[in-house]
Amino acid sequence: ELQQKVEETELLKMELQMLETERVRLSLVEEKLLDVLQLLQQLRDLNISKRALGKILLSTLESCRDPQPGKAQLFQVLDTLRQELTACDLLHRQPPEQAQSQRSLSNALVISC
What we know:
Blueprint: H1 2-45, H2 50-63, H3 70-86, H4 89-92, H5 96-112
Helix pairs in contact: 1-3, 2-3
């Protein structure tokens, strides 16, 4: 009976460890998904065209064509999509009014020197 309790305890420990591993994995997926959604929100605010967004998505899917196990492929697609969205030129451009005010400021600095 004592041996059976020890075995049950070991099984429960292993199950708990597996659950903790899955919790960490899900947390990482959630982080990546939140990053992707924030980037998509920023692009929407910049009025990116559906065509440009479609190209980014197709590029991501094309680069993740190699078949992998389900969970690994999910990580790869999310990570690649985040990288593609981060590299999008529109996110690195400044809004026209901000660029204009910075040009005016830099011109004023040049003149004042």
